[in-house]
Specification:
There is one protein chain. The relative contact order is 0.11. With 443 residues, the protein is of the alpha/beta class. The strands form 5 sheets. Strands 4-3-5-6-7-8-9-13 form an 8-stranded mixed beta sheet, sandwiched between helices. It has a 4-stranded antiparallel beta sheet with strand order 10-11-12-14, with no helix packed on it. The chain has a 4-stranded mixed beta sheet with strand order 20-19-17-21, with helices on one face. The chain folds into 2 domains: 339 residues, 3-Layer(aba) Sandwich (Rossmann fold); 97 residues, ANL, C-terminal domain (GMP Synthetase, Chain A, domain 3, 2-Layer Sandwich). The chain is built from 14 helices and 21 strands. Helix 6 packs across helix 7 and helix 8 crosses helix 9. The structure holds zinc ion.
């Protein structure tokens, strides 16, 4: 039996040229619309252009990029292209580095576009309308919970919007409600698995989960494999990826084929153009190369973005258009390697926190979900790094040995020296959503 199901076969089965033709047609419409917005006209003028010039992919490549600083300058409602009376809802970035940036959504943005994009994602990951869905993303201004709610409603699945946290309740519900699908931070699900074991529950036997969508946090392939092994046989952990600026977790999802290669489809290319660019030169990268995702939303009404710099780095697949699922117009990329902002430089060697996580997940006796790096300098240009980890309660390996194993693996695999301190399990902070993996020591 084929593992492939399409939500929109008339789009998902198109080849790349046909997708590019859709994008080109919509770019011209978007450009025409933005040329009536003074903020957008001023923004394009910085590159000697008008939004109306944006009629081809080449013209798009000449358009100015957009980043937080551009939007912060236009506080409080940057580049809103619709009258406030037609904006139904706002979403916002997390604001970890300053005031959150607000993005508006019209009725059409919410009920039509977001629903359309999310239904395709749910189908690609193998969620069924008959699933009981534990929705564990957060709510409020953050788009994660909202996007899943809108998507699940349109898709027809049964939504249990628990949101993040409330471990005891979630554990009882996982057993008694029989959830078959879920979305949450993968770290939180691992925390629940650990808590279930401590209560004498075996998730492999007592839960019914068969598919999960995991975003909000990039975890290593090893961590994903361990999560799958701890859950009922056949459980598949899919990576889902998106950003507030894109309008939700609507950019990437793995299909049953690309899951095995740890790759995702950029699956909504008929409504979002994704460029993958070398962050230094802003030129497109080739297959197998690492670049930053830069996005242009084609159909959003209230708060479109043109060439938004996500700062998220991915590797374009060696064979971006060859997935056996047949989505030949939706390129494949690897998992998010890291944010260009998270990048550390240790004696000249570029290090991403995900590389450290990969090592910890593969070290016997180390707790997977609780660890962090402590550094001394805000600019992240370092002579050395300090890593704090925990030893699992059930392990017979002495703490010093767990620390030594991680230290050795960091040296042999990344080529840097690290000071590793190993604590008893339960010492370091846990996170319900996005974990903070790099702490700057205050002197
Ligand atoms: Zn595929």
């Amino acid at each position: 039996m084929s593992k492939t199901a399409y939500q929109h076969p008339e789009v998902e089965c198109l080849d790349r040229d046909a997708i590019l033709a859709i994008q080109k047609r919509k770019l011209a419409v978007l450009g025409g619309r933005l040329s009536t917005s003074p903020d957008w006209v001023a923004h394009f003028r910085s590159a000697g252009m008008s939004p109306a010039d944006m009629v081809t992919h080449d013209a798009l490549a000449a358009a100015p990029t957009l980043e937080k600083v551009n939007l912060r300058d236009l506080y409080p409602f940057p580049m809103l292209t619709n009258d406030m009376s037609t904006v139904r809802r706002f979403i916002a970035t997390s604001g970890t580095t300053g005031l959150p940036v607000m993005f508006g959504m019209t009725d059409r943005d919410l009920d039509h576009l977001l629903a359309y994009q999310m239904c395709r994602i749910l189908r690609a990951a193998g969620v069924e309308p008959s699933d009981r869905f534990y929705q564990g993303y957060g709510y409020g201004l953050w788009v994660g919970g909202l996007a899943l709610d809108v998507g699940l409603k349109a898709y027809g699945a049964t939504n249990f919007p628990l949101g993040p946290g409330r471990a005891e309740l979630a554990l009882a519900y996982l057993r008694d409600h029989g959830y078959t699908a879920c979305s949450m931070s993968p770290l939180w699900l691992m925390t629940l698995v650990t808590a279930a074991h401590e209560m004498g529950m075996d998730p492999r036997r007592d839960w019914k989960l068969r598919v999960g969508l995991f975003g909000g946090q990039s975890v290593s392939a090893a961590f994903r494999d361990q999560l799958e092994a701890a859950l009922p046989s056949g459980f598949v952990a899919h990576n889902i990826y998106g950003t507030t600026e894109a309008g939700g977790p609507v950019l990437g999802i793995s299909c049953p084929y690309s899951h095995d290669r740890d790759e995702m489809h950029l699956i909504n290319e008929d409504t979002i153009i994704t460029e993958i660019l070398d962050p230094a030169t802003m030129s497109p990268v080739g297959p197998g190369e690492v670049g930053e995702l830069v996005i242009t939303t084609l159909d959003r009404e209230a708060s479109p973005v043109v060439r938004w710099r996500t700062r998220d780095l991915v590797r374009l697949s060696d064979h971006p258009y060859d997935c056996p699922c047949g989505r030949k117009g939706m390129p494949l990329v690897g998992r998010i390697i890291g944010r260009s902002d998270d990048m550390l430089k240790v004696r000249g060697v570029i290090v991403f926190p995900t590389q450290i996580e990969d090592i910890i997940a593969n070290t016997e006796g180390a707790v997977k979900e609780a660890w962090h790096i402590v550094i001394d300098r805000e600019d992240k240009i370092l002579e050395e790094i300090n890593i704090e980890i925990e030893k699992t309660r059930g392990s017979n390996v002495p703490r010093e040995d767990v620390a030594h194993r991680v230290q050795h693996a960091v040296h042999s695999r990344i080529g840097i020296r690290a000071n590793v301190i190993c604590h008893e399990e339960g010492t370091l902070p846990r996170y319900e959503a996005k974990a903070v993996r790099v702490h700057v020591r205050k002197n």
